[in-house]
């Protein structure tokens, strides 16, 4: 990679880190409040970076989001639930790092099979988004199912159906938005880098 291209990529990464910081700080720019949970759109930025710049850079941007989520759980949580569950880095950081990694590799595999870049990006965006939803909600169930009455005011036996309902509504909406928007942003980033 030429020095000018490296510099340009570093500037882009700084810009995306700044975008993640803004999205996590400004209401409705990254999270849309919906009761105890939030519908997130920050994953779109992570997926777009991964699709355009690769899994390491996607993991870095996702990691920045995760670390901010972890810190905010202590200082300024985005919801009552966030203060209780996002203090666990397995829920706040780990899934965010994997969004870009999974998204990129699903895209790469589908591209090798189909040779259709945009369609492959759609699949990558879908799987990146679902990675976040499944890992966050799955680990909430795994780590906090015995505290469900205190956290969600839901009986332990009703927690799994509750979380599946959240996945079915929030997760599907987040995945749909990612499939529609992240590939378009990734294409623009790729074109900018080629120039």
From TrEMBL:
Molecular function terms from GO: transmembrane transporter activity
Alphabetically ordered keywords of this record:
Membrane, Transmembrane, Transmembrane helix
* Cited InterPro entries: ECF_trnsprt_substrate-spec (IPR024529)
Q: What is this protein called?
A: Integral membrane protein
Residues crossing the lipid bilayer are 7-26, 32-53, 60-87, 93-111, 123-142, 162-186
Superkingdom classification of source: Bacteria
Organism of this sequence: Ligilactobacillus hayakitensis DSM 18933 = JCM 14209
């Amino acid at each position: 990679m030429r020095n000018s291209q490296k510099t340009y990529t570093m500037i882009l990464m700084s810009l995306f880190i700044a975008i993640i910081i803004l999205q996590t700080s400004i209401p409705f720019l990254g999270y849309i409040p919906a009761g105890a949970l939030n519908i997130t759109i920050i994953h779109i930025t992570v997926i777009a970076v991964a699709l355009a710049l690769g899994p390491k850079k996607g993991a870095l941007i996702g990691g920045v989001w995760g670390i901010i989520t972890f810190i905010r759980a202590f200082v300024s949580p985005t919801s009552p639930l966030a203060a209780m569950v996002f203090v666990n880095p397995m829920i706040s950081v780990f899934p965010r790092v994997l969004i870009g990694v999974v998204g990129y590799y699903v895209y790469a595999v589908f591209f090798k099979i189909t040779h259709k870049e945009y369609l492959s990006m759609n699949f990558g965006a879908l799987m990146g988004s679902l990675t976040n939803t499944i890992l966050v909600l799955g680990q909430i169930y795994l780590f906090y199912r015995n505290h469900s009455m205190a956290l969600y005011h839901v009986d332990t036996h009703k927690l799994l159906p509750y979380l599946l309902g959240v996945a079915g509504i929030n997760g599907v909406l987040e995945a749909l938005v990612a499939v529609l928007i992240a590939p378009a942003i990734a294409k623009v980033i790729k074109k900018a880098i080629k120039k």
